[in-house]
Recover the amino acids of this structure.
């Protein structure tokens, strides 16, 4: 297992999206969420929001490949969502497909896609936000938005530690499986107890990392006084334009999604 | 005195038996519901009938739980706790956190979020519902690390929501709901060692039965109130999500948490990270 890593989700690039003020990007991600909520019953109306999150991923230099990977990973989820919501709306709209008990109507399909985008759009938006914002700036933005400094520090640290923690969980699981641990065998109780050899090493790692992280924080004087920032982002005309355009786009989409006559 | 100790021990054994019996009954009842009505087991599942059938009562109870839970969340983070003598300092408010508290909260969140994101759920009825083994950690973080552990569980769940694709208006309920899952055993279980009958018995009362009900009603009341934004029908909120949260938290915490707690407590105490020891050391 590797030592404590604070690499996080940030990807170093020089793109227009990276250069935006983090507050503008947080506002944008929340607007994506709001517009996805407003269009959750009509997947067609949610399409512009989806397209904009793909554009953001592309503008942040992450490319459409990541989006494609996320969408492929979510395809099973889309199938499940379609089955559930198509079933709930099987008596409304024009019948498109009948397979045994499954009756897929145009209304059911729109709702299913709306619900799918309700999940996918914020995931893509937050992926773009976290990948294009330095943790240092994310913490600064959270403090500016009113979060207590220690809570902002805790959230940012946890987010930065997440990729290495997920990697460590996978390594421990692979090691235990190689030693004969069968996670998918036995009764419910047995299968739950099979996770003890995975969780205990993870907590043991946590206990040793606590002291390392504490020393890193103490050496930087974190938590003792109000933190100051050497490199503070500056709100520029570009951020204002981006925020106004986002408001217009997502406000318009949300109004479209909520208007019953459209 | 001996009589009192015996009756106390009997009550604790009863709590353990009740916790395990409820967990077993939940699994059996869902299996029965699926056998009777394979197309819609929720219509037969007893927990769905209770939560959805008594929706008005659950809504009223949920409102009380929500107000109290949110007030406790704010108070504890502000450094105050409710006691029999009124409001007192808890010595673990965010403003009083040392770097160790920040590190504990961040690492608890990362491990909780990482385990939620990286471990496959255990399907206990194929295609319908599943258990998350990582949920067993939330009450233990509260009991072992105190308020930083409680906030770590809340942030870990929020991060798992963000990266896992479940972030939305409902995540606010999940954030404080997970704080309460960790908070109840932290506050009400007196002995956190899992090495005595009273310790295990109290854990089954607060860390298994009470937290499962509180988290289910807290989260589902919020989903019910925010129905227009979340877009989930009331049957889904009270008939499916509430029983899933309740079942998952009962089964996982009844089966896994005491085993993990028994193994982990000496490790955490030995490293000087148990919250009571740290508060005592700070006072000295």
């Amino acid at each position: 297992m590797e030592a404590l890593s604070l690499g996080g989700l940030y990807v170093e690039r020089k793109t227009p999206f990276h250069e935006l003020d983090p507050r503008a990007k947080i506002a944008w991600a929340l607007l994506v969420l709001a517009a996805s909520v407003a269009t959750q019953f009509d997947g067609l109306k949610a399409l512009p929001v989806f397209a904009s999150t793909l554009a953001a991923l592309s503008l942040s230099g992450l490319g459409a490949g990541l989006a494609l990977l996320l969408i492929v990973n979510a395809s099973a989820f889309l199938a499940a969502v379609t089955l559930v919501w198509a079933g709930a709306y099987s008596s409304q709209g024009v019948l498109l497909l009948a397979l045994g008990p499954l009756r897929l109507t145009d209304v059911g399909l729109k709702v299913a896609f709306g619900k799918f985008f309700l999940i996918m759009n914020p995931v893509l938006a937050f992926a773009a936000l976290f990948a294009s914002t330095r943790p240092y700036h994310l913490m600064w933005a959270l403090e500016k938005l009113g979060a207590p400094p220690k809570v902002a520090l805790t959230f940012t640290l946890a987010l930065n530690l997440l990729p290495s923690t997920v990697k460590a969980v996978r390594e421990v699981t692979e090691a235990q499986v190689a030693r004969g641990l069968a996670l998918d065998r036995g009764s419910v109780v047995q299968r739950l107890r099979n996770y003890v050899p995975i969780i205990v090493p993870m907590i043991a790692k946590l206990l040793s990392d606590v002291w390392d992280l504490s020393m890193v924080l103490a050496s930087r004087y974190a938590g003792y006084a109000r933190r100051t920032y050497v490199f503070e982002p500056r709100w520029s005309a570009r951020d204002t334009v981006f925020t106004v355009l986002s408001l217009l786009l997502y406000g318009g989409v949300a109004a479209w999604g909520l208007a019953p006559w459209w | 005195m001996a009589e009192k100790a015996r009756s106390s021990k009997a009550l604790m054994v009863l709590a353990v038996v009740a916790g395990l019996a409820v967990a077993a009954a939940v699994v059996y009842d869902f299996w029965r519901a699926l056998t009777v009505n394979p197309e819609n087991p929720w219509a037969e599942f007893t927990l769905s009938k209770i939560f959805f059938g008594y929706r008005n009562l659950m809504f009223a109870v949920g409102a009380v739980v929500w107000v109290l839970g949110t007030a406790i969340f704010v108070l504890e983070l502000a450094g105050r706790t409710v006691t029999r003598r009124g409001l007192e300092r808890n010595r673990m408010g965010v403003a009083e956190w040392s770097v160790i508290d920040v590190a504990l909260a961040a690492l608890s969140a990362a491990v909780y979020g990482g385990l939620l994101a990286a471990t496959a759920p255990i399907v206990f009825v194929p295609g319908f519902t599943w258990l998350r083994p990582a949920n067993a950690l939330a009450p233990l973080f509260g009991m072992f690390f105190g308020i930083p552990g409680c906030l770590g569980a809340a942030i870990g769940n929020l991060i798992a929501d963000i990266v896992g694709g479940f972030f939305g208006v409902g995540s606010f309920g999940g954030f404080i709901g997970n704080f309460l899952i960790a908070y109840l055993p932290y506050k009400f279980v007196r002995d956190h060692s899992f090495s005595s009958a009273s310790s295990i018995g109290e854990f089954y009362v607060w860390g298994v039965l009470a937290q499962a009900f509180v988290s289910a009603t807290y989260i589902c009341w919020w989903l019910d109130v925010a129905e227009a934004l979340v877009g989930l029908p009331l049957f889904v909120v009270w008939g499916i999500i509430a029983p899933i949260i309740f079942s998952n938290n009962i089964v996982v915490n009844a089966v896994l948490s005491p085993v993990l707690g028994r193994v982990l407590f000496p490790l955490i105490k030995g490293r000087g990270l148990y919250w009571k020891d740290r508060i005592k050391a700070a006072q000295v």
